[in-house]
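Quick log. Single chain, no ligands specified.
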Amino acid sequence: MRRIIRDYSCQWNGLLHSRMLLNWMPALKNKNVLANKACFSYAKDLVLFIRNNFGNYFKIFVAGYPSGHSDILDRNIEIQYLKDKVDAGADYIITQTVFNASEFVSYVKRCRKIGINVPIIPGIMPVQNAKLLLRLDNRCKFHFTEDVYNALITYKDSEEYLIEFGIQKAKETILEIVKSGIEVQQVHFFTINSPEPTMQVWEEVKEAYSKFRVDQSQ
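-> predicted structure:
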């Protein structure tokens, strides 16, 4: 297990995302790369293992779910699980895709209220490729807002219009989060292997994003 973590970290410059490591484990176990005792059912246990074996060498990212986790119906329990991961040693939280800025802001406030003080980074996806996203939604549960879902259906065969919608929606979401007054140090983009829309979003919001961050720090 230690070797696998080292190999993984070499690819990602010492950054570890517990969710990605957990997703790899069943396949590694089936290939007899991992012994049964080395597999972790919960991210908290994996984070604790990394901290106990590697100290502070790694920066550890864990997943957050502003729209709710599909396997956990009680939101209070879900938030407590997140706190357990942070208490075990996580440095950052990257959220699922955020399409509702006010929902993300409320989520951050709930986290702060129970003592989760690490940076919470919103996951932003400029929507594109409607057929792919609708198919992935069955497994990933993107929690599309009504306007995003309607755009995916309406522009399913009009990629150019969908990309433009996705860029505008991502811009609006980022700026609404920043203007809310909560501290947002970074934004994490989900590019779906197509970085051009993301680059356009960032080019159009970075000046305003930087300005609001400066204003908040004064």
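The chain is about 55% helix and 10% strand.
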